[in-house]
């Protein structure tokens, strides 16, 4: 019987990947793994999920991915692909129906450059809540995050499109979305106050079928992040 419960150290390795699908190694609340789940769902690719206990990783998982990180994909041929942008680009190439990346080399390069810029924003989603919990003044960091959000808002204003690279969702939207999905529970929503286009984008993303299929409620995220703050992440929360 498939289980969503996570596999920890000492667990038996799962069997071979069935021929008609992929296997995703994930953690239910990981925003990086959610990127891959969004792409899998958007493209309608059949896959099974094996969730990994990230504090007590099984030895067999470390053999597959020496970095010990999720997401990782495994094909029926035993090929392993890891790192979220790499898994997502692989899926877009291996399953060319409903392409999420542009066909032109420059278009692809533009999305990669944008992702590189956004990767400099991601640490704020972690360090501001952590500093706040420690009773530190976070006003300086919040001002920096607001600046980064303002630049994203400016991009949308200049493009005059609903999403970051057009009027339909593309890869870059899925790469950024998981962090915005958690913005309220991380108490960072006020950083969007002066970015109307970015707010509109976030509202539109909530209507995307792949987003609906992969998201959790604010209450669930709150309970998970509380368990993280207490030093005992509950990866099997609500299971």
Helical region count? 10
What is the gyration radius calculated from CA atoms? Answer: 18 Å
What characterizes the major β-sheet?
Answer: 4 strands, mixed
> What's the helix-strand series?
EHEHEEHHHHHHHH
For the residues shown, what is the average pLDDT? 96
The N- to C-terminal Cα distance equals 14 Å
Backbone structural class: alpha+beta
E-strand count: 4
Strand content: 5-15%
So what's the CATH class of the largest domain? Mainly Alpha
Unreliable spans are none
* Helical content class: 40-55%
Could you say what the CATH architecture of the largest domain is?
Answer: Up-down Bundle
CATH names the topology of the largest domain as Glutathione S-transferase Yfyf (Class Pi), Chain A, domain 2
Q: Can you tell me the overall shape?
A: globular
């Amino acid at each position: 019987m498939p289980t969503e419960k996570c596999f920890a150290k000492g667990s038996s390795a799962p069997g071979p990947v069935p021929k008609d699908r992929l296997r995703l190694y994930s953690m239910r609340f990981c925003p990086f793994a959610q990127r891959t789940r969004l792409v899998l769902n958007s493209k309608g690719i059949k896959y099974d999920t094996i969730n990994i206990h990230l504090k007590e990783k099984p030895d067999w998982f470390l053999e597959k991915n020496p970095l010990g990180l999720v997401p990782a994909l495994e094909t029926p041929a035993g090929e392993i692909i890891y790192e979220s942008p790499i898994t997502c680009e692989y899926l877009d190439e291996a399953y060319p129906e409903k392409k999420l990346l542009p066909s032109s080399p420059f278009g692809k390069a533009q999305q990669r450059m944008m992702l590189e810029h956004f990767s400099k924003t991601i640490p704020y989603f972690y360090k501001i809540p952590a500093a706040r919990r420690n009773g530190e003044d976070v006003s300086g960091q919040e001002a920096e995050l607001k600046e980064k959000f303002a630049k994203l808002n400016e991009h949308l204003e200049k493009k005059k499109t609903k999403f970051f690279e057009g009027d339909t969702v593309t890869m870059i939207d899925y790469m950024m979305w998981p962090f915005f999905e958690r913005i309220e529970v991380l108490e960072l929503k006020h950083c969007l106050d002066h970015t109307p286009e970015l707010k509109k984008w976030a509202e539109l993303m909530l209507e995307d079928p792949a987003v609906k299929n992969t998201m959790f409620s604010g209450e669930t995220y709150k309970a998970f992040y509380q368990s993280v703050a207490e030093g005992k992440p509950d990866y099997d929360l609500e299971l």
